[in-house]
What does this fold into?
Amino acid sequence: MCGIIAYTGRDEAAPILLKGLKSLEYRGYDSAGIAVLNAEPHVSITKTPGRVEELERKVASENITGTSGIGHTRWATHGIVNEANAHPHTSCGSELVLVHNGIVENYLELRAELLDAGHKFTSETDSEIIVHLIESHMKDGASLEDATRRAAKRIRGAAAIVVATAGDPGRIVGLRLGNAGGIVVGIGKTGMVMASDLLAVLPHTRTVAYLDSGEMAIITPDTASFHDLDGGVIEKATIESDRSAEAAERGSFRHFMLKEIHEQAESTASAMRGRVDFENETVSLPDFPFSEEEIRRLDQVIIVGMGTSFHSAMMGAYMIEELVGIPARAENASEFRYRSPVLDENTLVVAVTQSGETADTLAAMEAARDGGAKQIAVCETEGSQATRMADGSLLIRAGQEIGVASTKTMTNTIVVLHLLALHLGRIRGSLGDETVADAVRELAALPGKVGDLLAAESTYEAIARRLATKRHLLYLGRGVMFPAALEGALKMKEIAYIHAEGYAAGEMKHGAIALISDLMPTIALAPAGPLREKMVSNVNEVKARGGEVIAVATEGDTMLPAVADEVIYLPPASVQMSAILSLVPMQLLAYYTALQLELDPDKPRNLAKTVTVE
Ligand code: M6R
It folds into this structure.
């Protein structure tokens, strides 16, 4: 949710912190702030509600010097969006500065205790509790790191914390408790960095280490050391990241979201590299962690995720059930974690999460592990908590996604889930060589077809102009197109703020049909496939009640153009590939509708890219 950055080294800290915050801003953009420390000793704190751009203007008008500092971009949980609630927070004596990501669940009780002890609070946040707790332990003579450890033992809830003190400006402490988002430590040549996200570390160094829950990092300009909550030293291996910092650049695109939509032709190909053998027309997943014998013993697959990743999970479940012939279902991770699912070692749990840090999905993974299931993560972010918890990971290789609305990561996730279905089906014998070969030929054509859809961008823009005048939309789909309908509706809700319902088309006449009128257009996902005729009937039902219909059909369809008001064409493809292809027009419809309404699709209100709180 929130983004955290810290730097200590030989360069001026303020520009480094601001640059880091810009690349972390997609995690939260309610307010932003930095604290810069220098040897005088002096701490300069600059904060503002709103964007990092605003913070940058404020910092430019001040004369801030110092080669250590911490910064934060906030997604508000406790306390309204204002300057007082922006991080960094300070202790009563103002010598301690702290940024926090997560929720202190027992903050009311701790706040009352600290107030009784004479602490003065300047914000309504739960985060401020932590800096006062650390202050009270330091007053008892504890060092910064010991006081932080002691404070950590008092707070309930997941947290990522970074804290520094004016008394020792070159020393910064970072701590991870549970799954409130990670902390990546970057070991640079001219300084050390800590951040919520690799992207903010990459401009300095590719040598990084990830904190696990219960681990602390202490950085100074020349050293980084790692400790447990009892103060013991941890020998932590560093890794060399092969990621590029360019992902944080928009290039010539107006928005990250548009850039990422356009990257899909290339990114889908990347998901297949080394997994699809186009010459021999077969699929295998060298990174799948379980043996052929274990695969043959599987008796159910459960795919968990949240939001868009839940929709990907639903599509994946359709594909696995159809191609592998074993029970497969998608579960919303926030529900799954509190159920009593029946699991054993023959259950495969697939956690779908592009960030690898979504709190509910990680909790679902814990439940799966406790139930003895096998589990894999389908994830973008190597080194994230999900990839470290799973028995193995299938990386989706979409490249870093900055736009809050998921686009290319969903498309790549579904490609990977489709490959998983083919891999399992081939090994279990539910798919013959010829079926796999057909699927490989379809996959080979996918990037080109995505490119063709992108070339028809002006069509979606024209339809978006009409949709932008509406307040309600209905998205209908059947089978594997049902999650595509849910995703189309989600994209429209999140970036254009239009009420949009995704519905299983067969369910419509059991209630939602009452909403049909000229005020609520229907987007009917009806490409070629076994359920197309059923969809045509649903389109007729909408039309018969005065509803406007935009149909998504396969090129060459002669029936839908006769009944629908508008048709968006997909290139001919199998129903599974059509589900993937249909996402591109859905994304562009939402994007252009948001632009019509003069909204910023990259930073939709109230949302954060990575949801690290429950
Ligand atoms: O990082 P994850 O894939 O676990 O994120 C889950 C959801 O928060 C995410 O898919 C969200 O729904 C999308 N960004 C919305 O476009």
Notes: The chain has a mean pLDDT of 94. The radius of gyration is 25 Å. Residues 92 and 120 are 6 Å apart (CA to CA).
